[in-house]
Design goal:
Elements lengths: L6 E4 L2 H9 L3 E8 L2 E7 L5 H9 L2 H17 L5
Antiparallel strand pairs: 1-3, 2-3
């Protein structure tokens, strides 16, 4: 996650969305197979603090619920 020269990288789609929402600028977004890769400019070094903030946020809870609902729909047609 931590990078050099004011850059941050993550493969976590939810964290990438949170970083973007909190003001970090996306420099690159790509996908390799099922994995996403995002590179952000983080000149102020906020990435680590924002990652902890995300872990304790309603945004993380929302992401967790979306994932749970997705899994539910995959189980026996969601019945």
């Amino acid at each position: 996650m931590a990078g050099e020269n004011g850059l941050r990288e993550t493969r976590d789609l939810a964290l990438a969305a949170y970083w973007k929402m909190r003001g970090l600028v996306i420099l690159r977004a790509s996908r390799r197979g099922k994995e996403f890769e995002f590179l952000f400019r983080d000149e102020k070094g906020l990435g680590d603090r924002l990652a902890v903030e995300f872990a304790n946020s309603e945004a993380q809870r929302f992401d967790s619920e979306v994932r749970a609902l997705k899994k539910l729909c995959q189980l026996d047609g969601g019945r």
